[in-house]
Amino acid sequence: MSKVTCFLPCRQGxxxxxxxxxxxFAHVEHGLIEIKLRQLVAADQIDEIVLSTNDQEILDFxxxxxxxxxxxxxRAEELSSSLTSTDALVxxxxxxxxxxxxxxxxxxxxxxxxAHYDEIITxxxxxxxxxxxSLMTTTEIHGFLWQNEKPMNYDRSVEKWPRTQTLxxxxxxxxxxxxxxxxxxxxxxxxxxxxxxxxxxxxxxxxDIDWPEDFVLGExxxxxxxxxx
Length: 229
Hints:
Shape: globular
Number of helices: 6
Helix content: 25-40%
Order of helices and strands: EHEHEHEHEEEEHEH
Radius of gyration: 19 Å
Number of strands: 9
């Protein structure tokens, strides 16, 4: 079975939430980076974690964990700007992880736990055998979705307002996990292949910390015991 290496990009200088990746989050002193590294270390199916960052504070904290699973990489400043493209990071990830399977995740998905990662990897391996070439996590949207002034996911000539439970769900990419062989990165310059398996996460687990209100909501959810780490 192919080695699974996690690529964890974590740049310094969040514009929306200053020090977002390492400021205290609820009761966790070192915040999102502490949560994510502990989850990834605890995931049995992940063999190695490559933390790519230009933030010395994050590098210093990661060293205190003394985990043999973690490989630290100081990312060049030209790859650490808010303007750095995903394409550039795809090439960067493949340079660091040229072989095996690459699991790309983010600290901003704090409620994707070690158990979730293990289940996602198990599913990925099964779906590879079934013909899919990669996996990405999504959030299913059950709602009345329109684009270009017409419905996307229902037919008004059949039923003007169907029950939301019967609507065809639309998958929103939540960026919690992208999982693909290193060859996909090399041959397609992408973190998913031509036929990715869509792995749906529920809304609470897939909660993404992007804006200040996301940070506050995430803390409240954790403190209320609605979600677990």
